[in-house]
């Protein structure tokens, strides 16, 4: 938060000699502070909306995977590997992360 009680008098004093009808630095500072506060509120609202959507998803899909889940993979028919879900999802933009994030657990074929 900007300390306008300190900044505005200083800025006004600096610009009082050079005001030709344009916005003063104090007016610009006040306008920027308002813009900052409105964007900060919008960001908080978006974060709150995202948290609600995540909670709703978790409620609708309680079986969705957790990072600490151990997944048993049958690789090539004869090799079985146990791996943590967080290992497969480490790189968030990878195909493995998409497939093993827990969102697609219901659509994956299971050998067991």
Structure commentary:
The chain is mainly alpha-helical and 112 residues long. It has helices at 4-15, 25-60, 85-88, 95-100, and strands at 70-75, 79-84. Strands 1-2 form a two-stranded antiparallel ribbon. Helix 1 packs antiparallel against helix 2. It starts with a helix and ends in a 12-residue tail after the last helix.
What secondary-structure arrangement, pairings included, does this model have?
Elements: H1 4-15, H2 25-60, E1 70-75, E2 79-84, H3 85-88, H4 95-100
Antiparallel strand pairs: 1-2
Helix pairs in contact: 1-2
Rg over alpha carbons? 27 Å
Poorly predicted regions are none
Strand content: 5-15%
General shape = elongated
Helix content: 40-55%
| SS class | mainly alpha
Total number of helical segments? Answer: 4
Order of strands across the widest beta sheet?
1-2
Number of strands: 2
Q: What is the chain-wise order of helices and strands?
A: HHEEHH
- Major β-sheet, in short? 2 strands, antiparallel
Q: What integer is the average pLDDT?
A: 76
Distance between the termini: 57 Å
């Amino acid at each position: 938060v900007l300390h306008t009680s300190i900044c505005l008098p200083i800025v006004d004093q600096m610009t009082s000699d050079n005001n030709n009808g344009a916005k003063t630095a104090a007016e610009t500072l006040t306008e920027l502070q308002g813009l900052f506060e409105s964007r900060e509120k919008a960001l908080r609202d978006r974060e709150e909306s995202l948290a609600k959507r995540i909670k709703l998803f978790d409620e609708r899909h309680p079986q969705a995977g957790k990072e600490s889940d151990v997944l048993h993979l049958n690789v090539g028919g004869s090799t079985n590997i146990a791996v943590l879900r967080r290992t497969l999802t480490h790189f968030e933009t990878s195909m493995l992360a998409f497939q093993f994030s827990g969102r697609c657990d219901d659509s994956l074929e299971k050998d067991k």
